[in-house]
Amino acid sequence: MPNDSRNWFAQGGDAYARYRPDYPDELVRLLARVSPDTRMALDVGCGNGQFTCQLADHFDAVVGLDPSADQLAHAVPHARVQYRGAPAEQLGVADHSISLITAAQAAHWFDLPRFYEEVRRVGVKGAKLALISYGVARLEAGLNERFLAFYKEEIGPYWPPERRLVDSGYAELAFPFYEQPVPRQELRREWDAHAFLGYISTWSATRRARDAGKEQMLVAFSNDLLTLWGDPNRSRTIVWPINIRLGEI
Questions:
Q1: Side-chain half-sphere of 15: how many Cα atoms within 13 Å?
Q2: Residue 27: which H helix or E strand, with range?
């Protein structure tokens, strides 16, 4: 309904689990292939565990760490995953026990020097570290222009400064490890309008805009998007570029 004025952005804690896109399995297979073995992986800043569970399909055991109790309360269960509440700077796992350490859409929040100290402590010989992010979504023509105006001009001021690290594909992050090239990858989804607006509800900038009293700006964008989308139940193609810093510890 083009003039649907529902506030898609007033989501509860389960929105992250429902609306964040998962990563292509090809990426997870690559990480398993380059790791020295597939005994144990550690997913840091695991959120609701989407990527953690993908790792568990290729590793004997996976530990997912996140400091947010709300995120862990909505974590996806998996027989080979153990979730724990812990920050990136205090991993709380045994020395030289981990073959692959990952941080998916999370490393820009870390105190990197302290995190890297912990990575060196917990990694086995030849362990791999992968910092993974995905960039700005690209929508179909006609929708993309309105979305980019929202992203850059309207919601833009409410992004925390760390967001620029994501937009640059983590290229500006210090990465003191032997770096390995990774084939170009992308995230591609066929989503209806409800799913895409739900995804935007998970942004930290959206929460900050709501806290600043910008509810009407968010609702106006949702109405504009729904008008341009047409039938809100129609699936449209959305693409995100995936950026990976892969190194050997």
A1: 19
A2: helix 25-34
Tens digit of each residue's pLDDT (9 = 90 or more) over 39-86: 999 999 999 899 999 999 999 999 999 999 988 998 999 999 999 999
H helix or E strand, kind and range, residue 189: strand 185-191
Q: Position of tokens 């952005």?
A: 9
Q: Would you give the DSSP letter of residue 75?
A: P
Rounded CA gap, 234 and 56, in Å? 33
The total of other beta-carbon atoms located within 10 Å of residue 158's CB is: 19
Q: Are 104 and 132 in contact (CB under 8 A)?
A: yes
> Distance (Å, rounded) from C-alpha 244 to C-alpha 83?
24
DSSP 8-state class, residue 138: B
Of residues 205, 245, 203, 196, the one with CA closest to residue 224: 196
Is pTM, for the whole model, over 0.90? no
pLDDT at residue 22 in the model: 83
Q: Which token pair is 60?
A: 């004997």
Exposure of 172 by Cβ count < 10 A (0-12 exposed, 13-18 middle, 19+ buried)? exposed
Encoded tokens for 163 = 């967001």
Using a pLDDT cut of 90, give the percent of the chain over it.
84
Taking only the tens place, the pLDDT of each residue in 160-175 is 898 999 999 999 999 9
Q: Which amino acid is at 65?
A: L
Cα 101 from Cα 63, distance rounded (Å): 10
Tokens of 245: 């810093």
Domain ranges, ordered by start, for the chain: 15-248
Specify the CATH number for 15-248; select among 3.40.50.150, 3.40.50.300, 3.30.70.1050, 2.60.120.230.
3.40.50.150
**248, 126 contact by CB (below 8 A):** yes
